[in-house]
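Fold this: GH16 domain-containing protein
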Amino acid sequence: MAPLLRYAMALAMASQLVLSQRIEVECTPSKKCPDSKPCCSQYGQCGVGAYCLGGCDPKSSTTVDACVPAPVCQSKTFKWDNLDSVAPNTKYLGDASKADWVASGQPLTTGGNLLLTMAPETVGTLLASNHYMWYGKTTARLKTSRGKGVVTAFILLSDVKDEVDFEWIGSNLQDVETNYYFQGITDYSNGDTFKTEDTFNNFHLYEIDWTPEAVKWSIDGKVVRTLERKSTFNATTDQYNYPQSPSRVQLSLWPGGLPSNGEGTIEWAGGLVNWEHPDITNHGYYYATFDEVTIECYDPPANADIKGDTSYIFKDASGTEDTVQMTNKKTVLKSFLGTGVNMTADYPSKSSSSSSSKSPAESSDVAVIPGLTGGGPGTNGQRESEGKNNKDGDGGDGGDDGDGSPTNDWDRPATTGFTQGNVDGPGDSNGASSQNEQMLRGSLFAGLVALTVLVTL
């Protein structure tokens, strides 16, 4: 899927928006965010708080330091007996020591596996690692979803939109697509497809091995594709169009086949989503199943600018490897009013504000969490006035209420428009919220901003 398109798809995932509303992209590298809302989200909208965390685009923000420093890589293996390592995007403030993943949508667990779900009138589920990886190896043992228009993805995505992908189209369970992008630049020659066997019923092991010199894609222990950095040299720009900036691991399930999506995207996704598919009638949702996921960090490149071991920052807006610096700068905001240049900004105390009983998204006039209202993807972090989505506490353990339905530890969408809904399903359940589009064709859930973003949430 196209990078702009991906970049809107991820957008959709993290958003709860009004159906078919068009939202103007607010920020681009040539049109930066204003000082009042300095952070440009992955979806091309300006705000503070979560806008300044994972996905904050330093090239389009007011300044590169408006984006909060990104937590450095940690090698870990993830199993899914529960969702203790996952935080909802409505609560995560940048403390990767408390949550390894941030989620939007409805993740569940069952039988020691992670389920990414997509119920009717939702746009699926996205998990993104909170620790960034600046070269390393990541593996995922998974079974994809199935059905026309249903897309499963396992990718690396950086804040400047470097990307390395595995993607699966639900109508074709014998093929896996691989792709890569440099800073979101569309190049349709970058993709390649490989044969495998029944990706829905069979677990397969997928691996991305990323070094400064090459990217290798492997399936079930066999390298199927190698991209060498030297092959990506662009003589016109005198640079390597090679993924080279700290990236998050992202796992996602999303609907490429929505009527509101572009024809090219729908065709690429295998057609329109069938919301009466057996998986919907039997379980209430489409689902992709993830077993073990691993992240193995490699050493930074030999010429890396190392001033610490806590976080990554960009020294300037070019976003290339030589502008990345490892620092000891903090990564945690005090509240959703914070930014990279004012990380201690907070809401008024109870004694000084009558709105203190409201959630951050309800009590602030500035956008703080991309896409939490019907206003559009990333245009306004406030919740709908009904307050249906309000939730307090620290996220808990994401357990169930005894009936298979997720607890309220996860964000609930507004009741208007096309939103991520609650899911009732079999087995243990743990839950999270939303997404959007207008695609070219490129990759993952990263996808969709081309001048205007057609919201489908």
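The helical segments are 3-13, 263-268, 278-283, 360-363. Confidence is low (pLDDT under 50) at residues 2-23, 359-363, 372-457.
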